[in-house]
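Why Putative endo alpha-1,4 polygalactosaminidase? Reviewers of the renewal asked for a concrete example.
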Amino acid sequence: MRTIVNPLKYALLAAFFAMPTLAAPLPGASWDWQLSEAIAPPADIKVFDADPDNVTRDQIMELNKAGVYTICYVSVGTLENWRSDVNTFYDGNVFYYPVVGKAYGNWPGEFFLDIRQPNLRYVMQRRFMDCALKGFQAVEADNMDVYTNDSGFEISRQDTMRYIEQLASDAHALGLEIGQKNVPELTGELVAIMDFVITESCFADGWCGDVLPYIEAGKPVFNAEYTDTGPDFAAACAYGTKNKISMILKDRDLTSELETCP
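Here is what the prediction returned.
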């Protein structure tokens, strides 16, 4: 089994191409989250989360120049079969044992990954590098919850923590911040090493309180409620304002449609 990238080489490249770092957003910062189409950033937001395949470096640079903190979406727990590096996951010279597991429920083209395999870290490091080269300030590390799903692998909470700690270290080495994604049960362990948290439907599902340690630590909580669940968004906004949670209402596909709190 071979290591597919040189971490030091990528760290040096990151330093060479580094964009000016924006100040980390504070709790309550306005945000939007667009993953499924060409971006259309609202004019009045402070934080913007996008799929790196849907944006150009010039677009991210313009957002940075406007003072918008940009977050790069990376699925760290699933294979997405439309990504340009998909063949890497089936390369026997990279992964001695199969790394691709069962299909991920209702998400066509997505399959769980065996996050225990050492070289997966370096695949993700290369993706983080791509985020840095496009000028992003941070990474949204999606699908951290492989261990709670029927993935086809026997992955433990301890395996998950080890992997996330490695990812956090690698992101920070590249000058990127990194955010927890959901997994509220890991907040107590992650709040010290992650820079923010992104949550989905935490108000409708009743667990926003589980991530409030981020607010207490001066780190932002970005939550999206979804239109297809019919949430009481006025109540969500009241809760968000009281607790300094950045609350928005989005469609499930995360298009440019956006409703913010008053």
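The CA atoms of residues 17 and 133 lie 6 Å apart. This is the kind of structural detail the renewal will allow us to pursue systematically.
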